[in-house]
Amino acid sequence: QVQLTESGGGLVQAGGSLRLSCTYSGRITGYFMGWFRQAPGKEREFVATIKWSGPTTFYEDSAKGRFTVSIDSATNTLYLEMNSLKLEDTAVYYCVANVLRSARGWSANFWGQGTQVTVSS
To answer: Helix, strand, or coil here: 63?
Structure first.
């Protein structure tokens, strides 16, 4: 079992930056860790993932070049650095563990409670 707790969400102006943090506990060896998000009225979508030992990463297309996922095993913390934020980045962001990819898309087996990110104009 993996426990995940996000922090760092908030209100930011378009074009600004925000860094989300996620502290994790439990065994994550072999897992990909990452982030999903859910915008109002939309389904949850994959944002980014990183191998538990780093540095292999994958990003959703709209996140490439703007978001950076990283992991610090010394402090058991996962990060999502978000730059050049857009209105459409407004969503609840979820820290996840054991990210999987299949023909049906991305999924994850362990989820945090989520943190709200709101981008204003």
So the answer is: helix
Q: pLDDT tens across 82-98, in order?
A: 999 999 999 999 999 99
As given in the structure block, the two tokens for residue 113 are 């409670």
pLDDT at res. 75: 96
86 vs 8, 19, 31, 39, 82, CA distance in Å? 17, 14, 30, 13, 10
- Phi-psi sector, 54: left (phi>0), alpha (psi -120 to 50), beta: left
Sites in the chain below the pLDDT cut of 50: none
Please answer whether residues 27 and 97 qualify as being in contact, where contact means their C-beta atoms are separated by less than 8 angstroms.
no
Q: What is the largest CA-CA distance in the chain?
A: 41
Q: Which DSSP string do the residues of 36-53 spell out, in sequence order?
A: EEE-TTS--EEEEEEETT
Count of alpha carbons within 13 angstroms of residue 80, beta-carbon side:
32
Does residue 117 sit in helix, strand or coil? strand
